[in-house]
Fold:
Amino acid sequence: MNIFIMAGTWQTFRRVSRGGHYDEEDMEMVIARGGPLAHLFRPVFKLIRKSWHMYPLGFLFGLGFDTATEVALLAISATEASKGLPFWSVLIFPACSRRHGAVDTTDGILMLGAYGWAFLNPLRKLFYNLTVTAVSVLVALLVGGIEASGLLAKNSASLGDFGISSAPSTITSATSVFVIIGIFFLCWMVSVLVYRSRGYD
Structure:
């Protein structure tokens, strides 16, 4: 779905960068079209009409996996402390939770800056949407490829009967996280250089 959105955004960006007309409503239609789930849940999206409607949504989000993990880490640290685990060892558990919060906070600050830059003019908004969608497609293909290679490696014995073989995947989940962060950083640097060198502003 993101590939189709990227193609539509690229066509609009090329037209506008060459001096063509930019209709923001058309672009919003391309982005908001979405896939089957977007059509299915569109009536639910319309339930949020005012800013305070986000509070109950935030509460539900707080019941999700991330918050449950943080609460579990704090509970484990308290339990282990009562069993006599050294103080410095106990701090490992809440430190895992705080590191997660630090990453989320940094991500929020960076995204705030990116959104502020993008919405200054329509061409920047198009370029931002194009970059984010392209990176999303690239990361999705990478993660899908890693998962597929892992499945092939796990079932290599049964697939060998059909002449299909696969070497065990050498990319661990930790490595893939760093690779994804590197892809995001590289794509953003390249996009900034392209935007400035082409003089789109």
Observations:
- The CA atoms of residues 146 and 171 lie 7 Å apart.
- The two ends are 29 Å apart (CA to CA).
- Confidence is low (pLDDT under 50) at residues 162-170.
